[in-house]
Task: inverse folding
């Protein structure tokens, strides 16, 4: 049996207490981590917060890093590091994201040592493990990051073309789209953790294109399936992040639901883009999957057709930072949940279809000297593929309500109704490597407030 070494008391000898978690053959003594259909094998080790503490997840269990520190489990290089100690004193991942990439690698390898099959510290670690799964019907309490700034891109060619053709039939894709990663500044204050109920927003809507408007609960509630990433190392104001360096500025990835009120959006979006149709709530999944864990699933940028322009040099992502993440959306009505019915899958696609890559989005954002900061959240925009069943929002999936979908209880949906729960899932899979998953990003629509 390939154990991680048998030194049980020499914590200063890094060689014995660091294990490379990217080894696809590595297994854990935490049995649920070895489930081939699970999201959290020892190769993943995503970070989140539980009960106000920084934690790492493995299988269906989690370990609060402060508990491991108090038990004397970390290597001296971490345990004596002021930055690491400070990172564990906050209830979010911002401090962790501030660590140097080399420290984060060491932490990841030290954690892999804790959890590896045959680990000499199993007994000590096992006593500290807690249940990682929150009850599905409880509002989430812990958001992974304090997000300073949130930017939402529009990086799927299929999504941009589909939505454009609905809103501007004669002119679906604007001439700038294939040259510049389009985005807008979102609102950080309304980013909520998975499980938080989403109150149906009120807003201005019009019955016909020219108005007059009325004010009331939005009728055309939608989700947008997106992948987000948190900035680790930022850049000083007035400096940039070269596209070739952008990948290592990313701390990790999560799933994002950019809730959208389509009737509000239609009336307000010109001339300056989305505003109140979007900023009432954005849900993020709780476990942040690190850049390192996703490295085996990096793929080149999407193939561009011969008609497509070459990216300008500052956007040439030659290293390829697209990710092959399978993404799924499920909906269940309140009635379905009461009756114990499984949610209905409404789409499945892949993040690898995105026209613009994470490195391109980040490099572009900083290309004018805008300073990116630790914990900033950048989201990809709706992830849609070429086929109908890979369209990442109801606007596209039901083609503006003209092709309703049928849920498991036999009811039809054009847009979301009160009581509907949307669950997003994401995972990476390839032969010979354990599945790396994101868990769930979950939210239920509740009636507008009186
Ligand atoms: Ca969006």
Result:
């Amino acid at each position: 049996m390939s154990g991680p070494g048998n030194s049980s008391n020499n914590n200063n000898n890094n060689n014995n207490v660091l294990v490379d978690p990217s080894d696809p053959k590595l297994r854990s003594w935490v049995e649920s981590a070895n489930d081939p259909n699970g999201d959290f094998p020892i190769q993943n080790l995503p970070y989140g917060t539980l009960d106000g503490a920084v934690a790492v997840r493995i299988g269906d269990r989690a370990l609060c890093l402060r508990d491991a520190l108090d038990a004397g489990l970390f290597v001296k290089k971490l345990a004596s590091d002021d930055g690491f100690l400070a990172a564990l004193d906050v209830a979010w991942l911002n401090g962790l994201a501030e660590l140097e990439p080399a420290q984060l690698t060491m932490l990841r390898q030290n954690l892999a040592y804790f959890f590896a099959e045959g680990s000499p510290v199993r007994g000590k670690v096992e006593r500290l493990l807690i249940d990682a799964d929150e009850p599905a019907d409880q509002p989430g309490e812990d958001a992974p990051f304090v997000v300073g700034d949130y930017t939402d891109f529009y990086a799927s060619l299929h999504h941009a073309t589909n939505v454009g053709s609905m809103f501007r039939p004669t002119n679906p894709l604007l001439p700038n789209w294939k040259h510049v990663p389009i985005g807008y500044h979102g609102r950080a204050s309304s980013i909520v953790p998975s499980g938080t109920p989403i109150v149906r927003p009120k807003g201005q809507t019009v019955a016909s294109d020219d108005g007059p408007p009325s004010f009331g609960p939005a009728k055309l509630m939608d989700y947008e399936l997106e992948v987000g990433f948190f900035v680790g190392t930022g850049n000083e104001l007035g400096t940039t992040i070269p596209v070739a360096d952008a990948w290592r500025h990313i701390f990790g990835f999560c799933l994002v639901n950019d809730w959208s009120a389509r009737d509000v959006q239609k009336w307000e979006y010109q001339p300056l883009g989305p505003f109140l149709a979007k900023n009432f709530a954005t849900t993020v999944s709780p476990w942040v999957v690190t850049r390192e864990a996703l490295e085996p699933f990096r793929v080149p940028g999407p193939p561009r057709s011969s008609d497509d322009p070459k990216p300008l040099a500052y956007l040439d992502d030659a290293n390829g930072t697209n990710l092959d993440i399978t993404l799924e959306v499920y909906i269940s009505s309140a009635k379905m949940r009461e009756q114990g019915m499984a949610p209905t899958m409404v789409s499945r696609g892949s993040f690898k279809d995105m026209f613009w890559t994470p490195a391109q989005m980040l490099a572009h954002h900083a290309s004018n000297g805008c300073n990116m900061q630790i914990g900033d959240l950048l989201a990809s925009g709706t992830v849609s593929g070429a086929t109908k069943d890979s369209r990442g929002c109801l606007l596209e999936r039901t083609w503006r309500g003209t092709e309703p979908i049928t849920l498991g209880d036999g009811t039809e949906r054009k847009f979301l109704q009160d009581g509907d729960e949307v669950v997003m899932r994401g995972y990476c899979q390839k032969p010979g490597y354990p599945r790396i998953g994101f868990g769930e990003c979950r939210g239920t629509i509740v009636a507008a407030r009186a």
